């Protein structure tokens, strides 16, 4: 199964959204969309889409005269008091919405101190999470999450990880050659979701997209049972396009 190499840019969307938020924050009494366009240099169509997303996420509010002011989510995440809890709650809300729109279990994963960590997950009765039958920390070579995270490291970082974790064969589709894996990671376009087609577990397909914020390496991922494999391409594209709010929350 192959994805069409159609670039999407959650990183660029988050960066543009941050420019809008910075401008709104400097005008706490309100700023018009015309002034926002002038100060950010964004086109009308682009700005309208970003403002729609920012309003949906609660980062800005539009008051009676049509001007934009900082929203409740921006205030909570911008505060040092209770920031970590506010961030976790905000991310969970975003993951839950993505789960419902994509129709799949959704995960946030981070590469912390040289290991793969799934930090949050949104699942449900009709969107079950993948069964972690092998520790995700030792199966990065086989999972979409792991390959997305490894793909964001430099060559030395990838080799260091693989030196610490044996590339065990988990299914008949698992890549167990370091040379082959490194070659595929190197060839993976950064704007195209990484796939796991029953490489980690028989009966499950997955996709992951990078959500790197600053020097922090992370990814947003989904999993589907094999009977829904025909939806993987569209689900992965939807996930990629929906990654900007997650990146934005991590960047604030």
UniProtKB/TrEMBL annotation:
Residues 73-252 form the IclR-ED domain. Pfam families: HTH_IclR, IclR_C. Residues 11-72 form the HTH iclR-type domain. Keywords: Activator, DNA-binding, Glycerol metabolism, Transcription, Transcription regulation. One of its GO terms (biological process) is glycerol metabolic process. Transmembrane segments: none annotated. GO terms for molecular function: DNA binding; DNA-binding transcription factor activity. InterPro entries: GAF-like_dom_sf (IPR029016), HTH_MetabolicPath_Reg (IPR050707), Tscrpt_reg_IclR_C (IPR014757), Tscrpt_reg_IclR_N (IPR005471), WH-like_DNA-bd_sf (IPR036388), WH_DNA-bd_sf (IPR036390). PANTHER family: HELIX-TURN-HELIX TRANSCRIPTIONAL REGULATOR, ICLR FAMILY, HTH-TYPE TRANSCRIPTIONAL REPRESSOR ALLR. May be an activator protein for the gylABX operon. This is Glycerol operon regulatory protein.
